[in-house]
UniProtKB/TrEMBL annotation:
InterPro entries: Acyl_transf_3_dom, Acyltransferase_3. GO terms for biological process: lipopolysaccharide biosynthetic process. The keyword Membrane applies. It comes from Micromonospora acroterricola. Residues 21-346 form the Acyltransferase domain. One of its GO terms (molecular function) is acyltransferase activity, transferring groups other than amino-acyl groups. The chain crosses the membrane at residues 27-45, 57-79, 100-119, 139-166, 173-190, 259-278, 290-312, 324-345. This is Acyltransferase. The keyword Membrane applies. It comes from the Bacteria. GO terms for cellular component: membrane. Residues 364-415 are annotated as: Disordered. Keywords: Acyltransferase, Membrane, Transferase, Transmembrane, Transmembrane helix.
Length: 415
């Protein structure tokens, strides 16, 4: 069903409202990235089985795109007027850096075990999350491969500077940006011919200012929804649009087009899921298991490639694949092992470090969604107000995958 009304007919939407559906969706995006990497590592040797994985996850790398759009949406949605820039930046560091540091050290340990050469300059770039700015082939994927997306997130530094401008922007300008940003993403493909051929992948897929376009797309949409001005399809219609876009992009659309189309499709799903939570409408992404999976998805994202490559190299199966049913079984085993490790990392590193390092905020009261006449809604409204946090340290976010927290006790992620 398509929603033709703004989020609130009477007043702008409150940023205190909780959005657990966005956390559940984060797990879906993390799963897409996992499936893409499982396919590119050629773990499954049986052609028929591999064809299924390729069909399902051929565009799975775009899950990072979802994380970037979602981060922009959540951070603008949850921003408070009284927060200082220093407070914001401190929360971002507390959220991202402890997990990154653990995986950076683990990747160096694995490199030492296999006697892999490690350039000190590359290790330092990774430690400081600067590798995405380095176009040299291999450098931006060095050490823990997936941390390139954390290095892209310089927009965390930019948001406190840009937020006052966003708050003052007139609606026509915001809607213009919603249209213009996907077109800029599209324009990057001819623009890549302005850089050396060896750097074109880096320019279109890694370069932080380029990837920030997705973040700002989510940020602008959040500002429109915060003011009660967003109009878009409901969750069912947005999901149908996304699936149709995914199938068309995987089968018939060239690479320079699908990145733009999927950015728009992801935005429609994110805004529709947020609107469903605000209105207390049904959402399949709000269940407790999915919310938990979303909470650990940042840790899952950081560990999954390192775990799979390390095990495959240790067993001697790197690049050979597993025949018959063993291929899918190995992929499922990796999924479970990575989930266990992600849960441990979330529980014993991410959460306590957020408690220790992030500045605290007073707890916000739960917001009960209301009908247009102002009366509280029923069970679906109560379901819409559980399991999510209100600010950027307690709500669904990127750094590149993550979840939601309760009163600062559980932290979230954030491509």
């Amino acid at each position: 069903m398509t929603s033709t009304a703004p989020v609130s007919a009477a007043r702008p939407a409150s940023a205190t409202a909780r959005l657990p559906s966005l956390t559940g969706l984060r797990w879906i995006a993390a799963l897409l990235v996992f499936g893409f990497h499982a396919g590119t590592m050629r773990i499954i040797a049986e052609p028929d089985y591999k064809a299924v994985v390729d069909a399902l996850f051929t565009l799975g790398l775009s899950g990072v795109q979802f994380f970037f759009v979602l981060s922009g949406f959540v951070l603008v949605w949850s921003a408070r007027a009284g927060d200082s820039r220093r407070t914001f930046w401190r929360r971002r560091i507390a959220k991202i850096y402890p997990n990154h540091l653990v995986l950076w050290a683990a990747a160096l340990l694995v490199a030492w075990w296999f006697a892999d050469p490690v350039l000190p300059a590359a290790a330092l770039e990774n430690l400081l999350l600067l590798q995405a700015w380095d176009p040299r082939p291999g450098w931006f994927y060095s050490i823990n491969t997936v941390s390139w997306s954390l290095s892209c997130e310089f927009f965390y530094l930019c948001l406190p500077l840009a937020l006052p401008l966003l708050r003052r922007a007139r609606p026509p300008l915001l809607w213009t940006l919603v249209v213009a940003l996907p077109l800029l993403i599209l324009a990057l493909w001819p623009a890549q011919h302005l850089v050396p051929e060896a750097s074109r992948w880096w320019f279109t897929q890694i370069f932080p200012p380029v990837r920030s376009l997705e973040f700002w797309l989510g940020a602008v949409a959040a500002e429109l929804m915060r003011r009660g001005l967003w109009r878009g399809p409901g969750l069912t219609a947005a999901s149908v649009i996304f699936v149709a876009t995914w199938v068309a992009a995987a089968q018939w659309i060239r690479g320079e087009l699908w990145a733009t189309l999927l950015a728009v499709a992801y935005l429609l799903v994110i805004t529709a899921a947020a609107d469903a939570d605000l209105r207390g409408r049904r959402s399949p992404w709000r269940s407790r298991p999915l919310v938990w999976l979303g909470e650990v998805s940042f840790a899952f994202y950081l560990v999954h490639v390192l775990v799979m490559t390390t095990v495959l190299r240790w067993t001697g199966d790197w690049g050979t694949g597993f025949g018959g049913w063993r291929g899918p079984a190995v992929v499922l085993g990796f999924l479970l092992v990575n989930l266990v490790l992600a849960g441990l990392l979330h529980r014993f590193v991410e959460t306590p470090m957020m408690r220790l390092l992030a500045p605290r905020r007073p707890a916000r009261p739960a917001v009960v969604p209301r009908q247009r006449d102002g009366s509280p809604q029923g069970d679906s409204a109560r379901a819409g107000s559980v399991e999510a946090g209100g600010d950027e340290a307690r709500s669904t976010e990127v750094g590149s995958a993550g979840g939601v927290s309760r009163a600062g006790e559980r932290s979230t992620y954030a491509r």
